[in-house]
Amino acid sequence: MSNAKKVAVVTGAAQGIGFKIAERLFNDGFSVALVDFNEEGAKKAAASLKAEGQEAVAFKADVSDRENVFNVLRGVVEHFGEFNVLVNNAGLGPMTPIDTVTPEQFSQVIGVNIGGVFWGIQAALEQFEKLGHGGKIINATSQAGVEGNKGLSLYSSTKFAVRGLTQVAARDLAEKGITVNAYAPGIVETPMMEGIAIKLAKENNQPEEWG
Fold this sequence. Notes:
Elements: E1 7-11, H1 16-27, E2 31-36, H2 39-47, E3 56-60, H3 66-80, E4 85-88, H4 103-131, E5 135-140, H5 153-173, E6 178-183, H6 191-203
Parallel strand pairs: 1-2, 1-4, 2-3, 4-5, 5-6
């Protein structure tokens, strides 16, 4: 990117993989918007990133709410005056054996994990077009979106969907100078993964250990 000011937005950035992505982008010279439903966590994470000529700013958002996502990206551009990269990282990963899934849980996980990515792509497109340049969109899928994982019916389903959405968006937006890619982490020691590990341990009558 040739422009002097580079701005990246990372959702689910208060902790875990999202924060580490935001931190890496910041260390690479980007000003970063850390977006999370946990506003206090996002503010604390943003405050830990400091460098001359760069900013790290927290924004609260429910990524399952389309209007909320659009408003946050509009706010990011209003604040920074630029926007180049969106990382759609926010996600929920509950243990969901097929017979336990409720309509409420289904709507919540689908809304965050697929809706959050879909609305993020739409909102990023709006801002890239207003700014008159292309950009980069990077979506979080998972190892569980490459191979179905036992007990993760909802999570795996959403991550497979993100892979498909990423491939379609990449084709649809290429002519606009917007690249769309995805990354698929394996098991990483994060608060979300720790919760899954503890639940699995309980179900298998194993000690609640992580590491």
